[in-house]
Amino acid sequence: MCSLYLCAKVFPGSPILMAPRKQKKAAEGINSRLALVIKSGKYVLGYRQTLKTLRSGKAKLVILANNTPPLRRSEIEYYAMLAKTGVHHYNGNNIELGTACGKYFRVCMMSITDQGDSDIIRTVPSIGGEQS
User: Is the pTM of this model over 0.85?
Assistant: First the structure.
């Protein structure tokens, strides 16, 4: 384990030094856009439904929780790459993603088929999420 100073010298862009305020603002931005999609757009929740939308080509954006199992994550990323669909890695676990969707259950992944009044599909890559 190294000191903060040494970590800053060895790993200049490490996430340890990222400002928590910026991460919090990015999370608030994606959460508000997600709430607008839930209210005015069309979406599906869950692995099987997301897979169906990717296979049929209806998915515009896929959002994955950060604790999605690696095999499932890579499978969804592969299907999204074939369908030329964006993938956003949500900066929170499946409980937090479910809460952001306004649900009282865990949501590991979701697929947005119609963004409604939201601009989530255009702005998600710039919020700080990883786009594949």
Answer: no
- How many contiguous H segments (helices) and E segments (strands) does the chain have? 6, 4
Cα distances (Å, whole numbers) of residue 83 to 27, 40, 54: 26, 24, 6
Residue 57: which CATH number?
3.30.1330.30
pLDDT tens-digit readout, 88-98: 999 999 999 99
Collapsed DSSP state (helix, strand, coil) of residue 97 = helix
Calpha distance 17→8 (Å, rounded): 7
Q: Which residues on neighbouring strands pair with residue 112, listed in sequence order?
A: 43, 61
* Position 28 in a domain: no
CB-based contact 8:2 (threshold 8 Å): no
Kindly give, in sequence order, each residue whose CB lies less than 8 Å from that of residue 23, ignoring residues fewer than 6 positions away: 91, 128
95-114 burial: b if 16+ Cβ within 10 Å, else e: ebbbebbeeeebbbbbbbee
Residue 108 structural domain: 42-132
Q: How many domains does the chain have?
A: 1
